[in-house]
Protein backbone atom coordinates (compact mmCIF):
# COMPACT_ATOMS: atom_id res chain seq x y z
CA UNK A 1 0.00 0.00 0.00
CA UNK A 2 2.40 2.65 1.18
CA UNK A 3 5.12 1.87 -1.34
CA UNK A 4 2.58 2.44 -4.12
CA UNK A 5 1.62 5.83 -2.71
CA UNK A 6 5.19 6.85 -1.97
CA UNK A 7 6.51 5.86 -5.39
CA UNK A 8 3.61 7.54 -7.25
CA UNK A 9 4.21 10.72 -5.28
CA UNK A 10 7.91 11.09 -5.80
CA UNK A 11 7.85 10.50 -9.56
CA UNK A 12 4.89 12.85 -10.13
CA UNK A 13 6.00 15.74 -12.34
CA UNK A 14 6.58 18.87 -10.23
CA UNK A 15 7.84 21.99 -12.02
CA UNK A 16 9.21 23.66 -8.88
CA UNK A 17 10.53 20.61 -7.05
CA UNK A 18 13.76 21.25 -5.11
CA UNK A 19 15.05 17.80 -6.11
CA UNK A 20 14.22 15.20 -8.75
CA UNK A 21 13.81 11.64 -7.54
CA UNK A 22 14.61 8.67 -9.75
CA UNK A 23 13.44 5.20 -8.78
CA UNK A 24 16.16 3.04 -10.27
CA UNK A 25 15.43 -0.32 -8.63
CA UNK A 26 12.57 -2.16 -6.99
CA UNK A 27 12.94 -5.06 -4.56
CA UNK A 28 9.92 -7.33 -4.25
CA UNK A 29 9.03 -10.95 -3.58
CA UNK A 30 8.19 -11.99 -7.14
CA UNK A 31 8.93 -10.63 -10.59
CA UNK A 32 5.20 -10.75 -11.37
CA UNK A 33 4.37 -8.58 -8.38
CA UNK A 34 7.11 -6.18 -9.44
CA UNK A 35 5.74 -5.97 -12.98
CA UNK A 36 2.25 -5.12 -11.80
CA UNK A 37 3.63 -2.54 -9.33
CA UNK A 38 5.58 -0.86 -12.12
CA UNK A 39 2.72 -0.84 -14.64
CA UNK A 40 0.36 0.51 -11.99
CA UNK A 41 2.64 3.38 -11.06
CA UNK A 42 4.42 4.26 -14.27
CA UNK A 43 1.46 3.57 -16.59
CA UNK A 44 2.07 5.63 -19.70
CA UNK A 45 4.62 7.86 -17.98
CA UNK A 46 7.84 8.56 -19.89
CA UNK A 47 9.87 8.54 -16.66
CA UNK A 48 12.56 5.82 -16.66
CA UNK A 49 11.34 2.56 -15.09
CA UNK A 50 13.21 0.71 -12.37
CA UNK A 51 14.96 -2.62 -12.71
CA UNK A 52 12.89 -5.21 -10.82
CA UNK A 53 14.63 -7.63 -8.46
CA UNK A 54 12.77 -10.54 -6.92
CA UNK A 55 14.67 -10.10 -3.68
CA UNK A 56 15.73 -7.14 -1.54
CA UNK A 57 19.47 -7.84 -1.30
CA UNK A 58 20.00 -7.12 -5.02
CA UNK A 59 18.69 -3.61 -4.42
CA UNK A 60 21.24 -3.05 -1.66
CA UNK A 61 23.99 -4.31 -3.98
CA UNK A 62 22.92 -2.13 -6.93
CA UNK A 63 25.48 0.64 -7.54
CA UNK A 64 22.81 2.89 -9.12
CA UNK A 65 20.95 3.05 -5.81
CA UNK A 66 21.79 5.92 -3.42
CA UNK A 67 18.83 5.68 -1.04
CA UNK A 68 16.80 2.63 -0.05
CA UNK A 69 13.19 3.28 0.93
CA UNK A 70 11.84 0.53 3.23
CA UNK A 71 8.06 -0.04 3.08
CA UNK A 72 7.70 -3.48 4.64
CA UNK A 73 5.73 -4.44 7.80
CA UNK A 74 7.10 -3.16 11.11
CA UNK A 75 8.94 -6.26 12.25
CA UNK A 76 10.98 -6.42 9.04
CA UNK A 77 12.31 -2.87 9.26
CA UNK A 78 15.19 -3.78 11.57
CA UNK A 79 16.72 -6.38 9.26
CA UNK A 80 15.92 -4.50 6.03
CA UNK A 81 17.63 -1.38 7.41
CA UNK A 82 20.62 -3.29 8.78
CA UNK A 83 21.15 -5.01 5.40
CA UNK A 84 20.87 -1.79 3.41
CA UNK A 85 23.16 0.06 5.83
CA UNK A 86 25.75 -2.75 5.70
CA UNK A 87 25.79 -2.31 1.91
CA UNK A 88 26.52 1.41 2.41
CA UNK A 89 23.11 2.73 1.35
CA UNK A 90 21.31 5.70 2.88
CA UNK A 91 17.94 4.58 4.27
CA UNK A 92 14.50 6.17 4.54
CA UNK A 93 12.45 3.66 6.55
CA UNK A 94 8.69 3.72 7.12
CA UNK A 95 7.36 4.35 10.60
CA UNK A 96 7.85 3.01 13.20
CA UNK A 97 11.60 2.56 12.60
CA UNK A 98 11.46 -0.74 14.50
CA UNK A 99 9.31 -2.61 17.03
CA UNK A 100 11.02 -1.22 20.13
CA UNK A 101 13.74 1.16 21.30
CA UNK A 102 16.36 -1.58 21.63
CA UNK A 103 16.01 -2.47 17.96
CA UNK A 104 15.92 1.20 16.97
CA UNK A 105 19.20 1.84 18.79
CA UNK A 106 20.78 -1.11 17.00
CA UNK A 107 19.79 0.28 13.59
CA UNK A 108 20.77 3.86 14.47
CA UNK A 109 24.16 2.72 15.83
CA UNK A 110 24.75 0.78 12.61
CA UNK A 111 23.96 3.81 10.43
CA UNK A 112 26.16 6.09 12.50
CA UNK A 113 29.04 3.60 12.44
CA UNK A 114 28.74 3.16 8.66
CA UNK A 115 28.41 6.91 8.04
CA UNK A 116 25.16 6.69 6.08
CA UNK A 117 22.04 8.81 6.42
CA UNK A 118 19.03 7.26 8.11
CA UNK A 119 15.57 8.70 8.73
CA UNK A 120 12.28 7.31 10.01
CA UNK A 121 9.65 8.36 7.47
CA UNK A 122 7.39 10.32 9.79
CA UNK A 123 5.93 12.20 6.82
CA UNK A 124 3.42 14.22 8.88
CA UNK A 125 6.13 16.34 10.50
CA UNK A 126 7.11 17.64 7.05
CA UNK A 127 3.66 18.88 6.01
CA UNK A 128 3.56 22.69 5.59
CA UNK A 129 0.47 22.59 7.82
CA UNK A 130 2.49 21.16 10.72
CA UNK A 131 5.45 23.46 10.10
CA UNK A 132 3.14 26.51 10.14
CA UNK A 133 1.36 25.21 13.24
CA UNK A 134 4.70 25.00 15.05
CA UNK A 135 5.45 28.62 14.14
CA UNK A 136 2.08 29.76 15.50
CA UNK A 137 2.40 27.76 18.71
CA UNK A 138 6.02 28.40 19.61
CA UNK A 139 7.30 31.44 17.69
CA UNK A 140 4.27 33.76 17.36
CA UNK A 141 2.71 32.29 20.53
CA UNK A 142 -0.65 32.82 18.84
CA UNK A 143 -2.64 31.11 21.62
CA UNK A 144 -0.42 32.20 24.51
CA UNK A 145 0.77 29.50 26.91
CA UNK A 146 -0.19 26.03 25.76
CA UNK A 147 -2.21 24.28 28.47
CA UNK A 148 -3.98 21.21 27.05
CA UNK A 149 -4.18 19.22 23.83
CA UNK A 150 -6.53 16.43 22.74
CA UNK A 151 -5.48 14.35 19.76
CA UNK A 152 -7.32 11.36 18.34
CA UNK A 153 -6.67 9.01 15.44
CA UNK A 154 -9.40 6.55 14.49
CA UNK A 155 -8.95 4.32 11.46
CA UNK A 156 -11.75 1.87 10.76
CA UNK A 157 -9.50 -0.88 9.45
CA UNK A 158 -11.28 -4.12 8.52
CA UNK A 159 -9.22 -6.08 11.06
CA UNK A 160 -11.63 -8.97 11.60
CA UNK A 161 -11.98 -9.65 7.87
CA UNK A 162 -8.21 -9.77 7.32
CA UNK A 163 -6.26 -13.01 7.37
CA UNK A 164 -4.09 -13.77 10.41
CA UNK A 165 -1.00 -13.16 8.26
CA UNK A 166 -1.94 -9.50 7.64
CA UNK A 167 0.48 -6.89 8.98
CA UNK A 168 -2.54 -5.26 10.61
CA UNK A 169 -3.38 -8.42 12.58
CA UNK A 170 -0.22 -10.40 13.19
CA UNK A 171 1.54 -9.44 16.46
CA UNK A 172 4.77 -10.94 15.07
CA UNK A 173 4.64 -8.28 12.32
CA UNK A 174 4.11 -5.52 14.90
CA UNK A 175 0.36 -5.03 14.41
CA UNK A 176 -1.66 -2.79 16.72
CA UNK A 177 -3.05 0.72 16.94
CA UNK A 178 -0.16 2.29 18.85
CA UNK A 179 2.65 1.44 16.43
CA UNK A 180 0.48 1.91 13.36
CA UNK A 181 -1.41 5.14 14.04
CA UNK A 182 -1.01 5.99 17.75
CA UNK A 183 2.52 7.14 16.98
CA UNK A 184 1.01 10.07 15.05
CA UNK A 185 -0.96 11.19 18.10
CA UNK A 186 2.26 11.11 20.14
CA UNK A 187 4.04 12.96 17.34
CA UNK A 188 1.41 15.72 17.56
CA UNK A 189 1.88 15.83 21.34
CA UNK A 190 5.58 16.37 20.69
CA UNK A 191 4.92 19.07 18.08
CA UNK A 192 2.48 20.85 20.42
CA UNK A 193 4.11 20.37 23.83
CA UNK A 194 7.76 20.03 22.83
CA UNK A 195 8.55 23.75 22.33
CA UNK A 196 10.26 22.82 19.03
CA UNK A 197 12.72 20.65 20.96
CA UNK A 198 13.46 17.12 19.79
CA UNK A 199 15.21 13.99 21.01
CA UNK A 200 17.19 14.31 24.23
CA UNK A 201 16.21 18.00 24.53
CA UNK A 202 12.47 17.30 24.40
CA UNK A 203 10.65 17.74 27.76
CA UNK A 204 9.96 14.40 29.43
CA UNK A 205 6.27 13.86 30.22
CA UNK A 206 4.80 11.64 32.90
CA UNK A 207 2.67 9.07 31.07
CA UNK A 208 -0.45 7.20 32.15
CA UNK A 209 -1.74 4.71 29.59
CA UNK A 210 -4.41 2.10 29.06
CA UNK A 211 -4.78 -0.34 26.18
CA UNK A 212 -7.57 -2.55 24.98
CA UNK A 213 -5.93 -5.73 23.71
CA UNK A 214 -7.61 -8.37 21.52
CA UNK A 215 -5.85 -11.27 19.83
CA UNK A 216 -2.48 -10.02 21.00
CA UNK A 217 -2.67 -6.48 19.60
CA UNK A 218 -4.00 -3.20 20.93
CA UNK A 219 -7.20 -2.28 19.12
CA UNK A 220 -7.32 0.98 21.05
CA UNK A 221 -5.15 2.95 23.44
CA UNK A 222 -5.45 6.09 25.57
CA UNK A 223 -2.43 8.00 26.85
CA UNK A 224 -2.30 11.00 29.16
CA UNK A 225 1.00 12.86 28.92
CA UNK A 226 1.64 15.40 31.68
CA UNK A 227 4.44 17.91 31.27
CA UNK A 228 5.52 19.52 34.52
CA UNK A 229 8.33 21.61 33.08
CA UNK A 230 6.82 25.07 33.59
CA UNK A 231 5.08 26.96 36.30
CA UNK A 232 1.99 24.79 35.77
CA UNK A 233 1.28 21.36 34.38
CA UNK A 234 0.41 20.93 30.72
CA UNK A 235 -1.50 17.89 29.51
CA UNK A 236 -1.85 16.07 26.18
CA UNK A 237 -4.45 13.32 25.79
CA UNK A 238 -3.61 11.03 22.88
CA UNK A 239 -5.87 8.22 21.78
CA UNK A 240 -6.04 5.91 18.77
CA UNK A 241 -8.23 3.05 17.66
CA UNK A 242 -8.49 0.60 14.79
CA UNK A 243 -12.21 0.10 15.45
CA UNK A 244 -13.83 3.28 14.16
CA UNK A 245 -13.06 6.23 11.95
CA UNK A 246 -12.14 9.39 13.81
CA UNK A 247 -13.50 12.88 13.13
CA UNK A 248 -12.11 15.28 10.54
CA UNK A 249 -11.44 17.74 13.33
CA UNK A 250 -8.95 15.45 15.04
CA UNK A 251 -7.19 17.69 17.53
CA UNK A 252 -7.82 20.66 19.79
CA UNK A 253 -5.14 22.74 21.48
CA UNK A 254 -6.06 25.07 24.31
CA UNK A 255 -3.90 28.00 25.31
CA UNK A 256 -4.11 30.87 27.78
CA UNK A 257 -5.19 33.24 24.98
CA UNK A 258 -6.97 31.08 22.43
CA UNK A 259 -7.30 27.68 20.85
CA UNK A 260 -6.44 25.84 17.66
CA UNK A 261 -8.26 22.94 16.01
CA UNK A 262 -6.56 20.66 13.47
CA UNK A 263 -8.42 19.27 10.47
CA UNK A 264 -7.91 16.62 7.83
CA UNK A 265 -9.71 15.40 4.74
CA UNK A 266 -8.27 11.86 4.85
CA UNK A 267 -6.68 11.10 8.20
CA UNK A 268 -4.61 12.83 10.91
CA UNK A 269 -1.37 11.66 9.31
CA UNK A 270 -2.04 14.13 6.49
CA UNK A 271 -3.44 17.37 8.01
CA UNK A 272 -5.00 19.89 5.65
CA UNK A 273 -5.79 22.94 7.80
CA UNK A 274 -5.94 24.47 11.24
CA UNK A 275 -8.29 27.06 12.69
CA UNK A 276 -6.99 29.62 15.15
CA UNK A 277 -9.52 31.16 17.56
CA UNK A 278 -8.45 34.16 19.58
CA UNK A 279 -10.28 37.16 21.02
CA UNK A 280 -13.55 36.32 19.28
CA UNK A 281 -11.83 36.03 15.88
CA UNK A 282 -11.40 32.87 13.84
CA UNK A 283 -8.70 32.42 11.17
CA UNK A 284 -8.36 29.38 8.95
CA UNK A 285 -4.97 28.30 7.59
CA UNK A 286 -5.41 25.84 4.70
CA UNK A 287 -2.72 23.97 2.79
CA UNK A 288 -2.54 21.99 -0.43
CA UNK A 289 -0.11 19.34 -1.64
CA UNK A 290 1.67 19.73 -4.96
CA UNK A 291 -0.80 18.58 -7.66
CA UNK A 292 -0.84 14.81 -8.15
CA UNK A 293 0.78 14.04 -4.80
CA UNK A 294 -0.47 12.90 -1.39
CA UNK A 295 2.23 14.68 0.61
CA UNK A 296 5.03 12.12 0.70
CA UNK A 297 7.15 14.47 -1.40
CA UNK A 298 7.79 16.72 1.61
CA UNK A 299 9.70 14.08 3.58
CA UNK A 300 11.28 12.61 0.42
CA UNK A 301 12.61 16.00 -0.72
CA UNK A 302 13.95 16.77 2.74
CA UNK A 303 15.80 13.47 3.03
CA UNK A 304 17.15 13.59 -0.54
CA UNK A 305 18.48 17.10 0.07
CA UNK A 306 20.21 15.82 3.22
CA UNK A 307 21.90 13.10 1.21
CA UNK A 308 22.86 15.47 -1.61
CA UNK A 309 24.40 17.83 0.93
CA UNK A 310 26.21 15.17 2.95
CA UNK A 311 24.01 15.49 6.05
CA UNK A 312 23.56 12.17 7.86
CA UNK A 313 20.66 13.28 10.08
CA UNK A 314 17.52 15.17 9.29
CA UNK A 315 16.76 18.26 11.35
CA UNK A 316 12.97 17.79 11.32
CA UNK A 317 13.10 14.09 12.24
CA UNK A 318 16.51 13.42 13.85
CA UNK A 319 17.43 9.95 15.07
CA UNK A 320 17.31 10.88 18.75
CA UNK A 321 13.66 11.84 18.24
CA UNK A 322 12.99 8.40 16.76
CA UNK A 323 14.68 6.84 19.80
CA UNK A 324 12.67 9.02 22.18
CA UNK A 325 9.41 8.08 20.49
CA UNK A 326 10.26 4.37 20.45
CA UNK A 327 11.12 4.48 24.18
CA UNK A 328 7.88 6.37 24.87
CA UNK A 329 5.90 3.66 23.06
CA UNK A 330 7.83 0.92 24.90
CA UNK A 331 6.70 2.52 28.17
CA UNK A 332 3.11 2.79 26.98
CA UNK A 333 3.12 -0.88 25.95
CA UNK A 334 4.61 -1.83 29.34
CA UNK A 335 1.71 -0.11 31.11
CA UNK A 336 -0.83 -1.55 28.68
CA UNK A 337 0.56 -5.07 28.89
CA UNK A 338 1.35 -5.39 25.17
CA UNK A 339 4.47 -7.42 24.36
CA UNK A 340 5.74 -8.35 20.92
CA UNK A 341 7.94 -11.38 20.26
CA UNK A 342 10.78 -8.96 19.47
CA UNK A 343 10.68 -7.65 23.07
CA UNK A 344 11.95 -10.94 24.47
N1 LIG B 1 3.26 6.95 6.12
C1 LIG B 1 2.03 6.45 6.04
O1 LIG B 1 1.03 7.15 5.94
C2 LIG B 1 1.85 4.99 6.05
C3 LIG B 1 2.87 4.19 6.45
N2 LIG B 1 2.72 2.84 6.44
C4 LIG B 1 3.85 2.04 6.90
O2 LIG B 1 4.38 1.35 5.76
C5 LIG B 1 4.79 0.05 6.10
C6 LIG B 1 4.08 -0.97 5.22
O3 LIG B 1 2.69 -0.82 5.33
P1 LIG B 1 1.70 -1.21 4.11
O4 LIG B 1 2.20 -0.63 2.86
O5 LIG B 1 0.35 -0.88 4.58
O6 LIG B 1 1.88 -2.77 4.09
P2 LIG B 1 1.49 -3.80 2.95
O7 LIG B 1 1.16 -5.07 3.65
O8 LIG B 1 0.50 -3.21 2.03
O9 LIG B 1 2.84 -3.99 2.14
C7 LIG B 1 4.00 -4.46 2.75
C8 LIG B 1 4.90 -5.08 1.70
O10 LIG B 1 6.05 -5.59 2.39
C9 LIG B 1 6.51 -6.78 1.74
N3 LIG B 1 6.66 -7.85 2.75
C10 LIG B 1 7.79 -8.47 3.07
N4 LIG B 1 7.60 -9.39 4.00
C11 LIG B 1 6.30 -9.40 4.29
C12 LIG B 1 5.48 -10.13 5.17
N5 LIG B 1 5.98 -11.08 5.98
N6 LIG B 1 4.17 -9.88 5.20
C13 LIG B 1 3.65 -8.94 4.42
N7 LIG B 1 4.38 -8.19 3.56
C14 LIG B 1 5.69 -8.41 3.49
C15 LIG B 1 5.51 -7.11 0.66
O11 LIG B 1 6.05 -6.65 -0.55
P3 LIG B 1 6.82 -7.59 -1.59
O12 LIG B 1 6.07 -8.88 -1.65
O13 LIG B 1 6.73 -6.81 -2.83
O14 LIG B 1 8.21 -7.74 -1.08
C16 LIG B 1 4.29 -6.29 1.00
O15 LIG B 1 3.57 -5.93 -0.14
C17 LIG B 1 4.52 -0.08 7.60
O16 LIG B 1 5.67 0.27 8.27
C18 LIG B 1 3.43 0.96 7.86
O17 LIG B 1 3.43 1.42 9.19
C19 LIG B 1 1.58 2.25 5.99
C20 LIG B 1 0.53 2.99 5.57
C21 LIG B 1 0.55 4.44 5.61
O1 LIG C 1 0.74 5.24 8.82
C1 LIG C 1 -0.42 4.91 8.63
O2 LIG C 1 -1.34 5.86 8.34
C2 LIG C 1 -2.57 5.53 7.74
C3 LIG C 1 -3.12 4.22 8.25
O3 LIG C 1 -4.29 3.88 7.57
C4 LIG C 1 -2.09 3.14 8.08
O4 LIG C 1 -2.58 1.91 8.58
C5 LIG C 1 -0.86 3.54 8.86
O5 LIG C 1 0.17 2.60 8.67
If you had to describe this structure to a student in words, what would you say it looks like?
This protein has helices at about 1-10, 30-40, 55-60, 75-85, 100-115, 130-140, 175-195, 295-310, 320-335; strands spanning about 25, 50-55, 65-70, 90-95, 120, 145-155, 205-215, 215-225, 235-240, 250-255, 260-265, 270-280, 280-285. It is α/β, with parallel strands linked by helices and about 350 residues long. The strands form 3 sheets. Strands 7-8-9-6-10-11-12-13 form an 8-stranded mixed β-sheet, covered by helices on one side. α1 crosses α8 and α4 runs parallel beside α5. The longest helix has 18 residues, at about 320-335. The model has no long low-confidence stretch (mean pLDDT about 95). The structure holds NADPH dihydro-nicotinamide-adenine-dinucleotide phosphate and the ligand O=C1OC[C@@H](O)[C@H](O)[C@H]1O. NADPH dihydro-nicotinamide-adenine-dinucleotide phosphate binds near residues 33, 74, 94 and 167.
Amino acid sequence: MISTMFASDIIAPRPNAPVKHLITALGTSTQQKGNSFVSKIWGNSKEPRPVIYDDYKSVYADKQVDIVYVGTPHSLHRQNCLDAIAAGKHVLCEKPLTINAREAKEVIDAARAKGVALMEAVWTRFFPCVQELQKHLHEHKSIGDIRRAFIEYGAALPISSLGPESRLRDPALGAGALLDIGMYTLMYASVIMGQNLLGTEHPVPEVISAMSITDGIDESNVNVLTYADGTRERVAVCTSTLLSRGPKEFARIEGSEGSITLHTAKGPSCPTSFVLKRGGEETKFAFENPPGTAGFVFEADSFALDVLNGRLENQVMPLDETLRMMALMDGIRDQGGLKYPQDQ
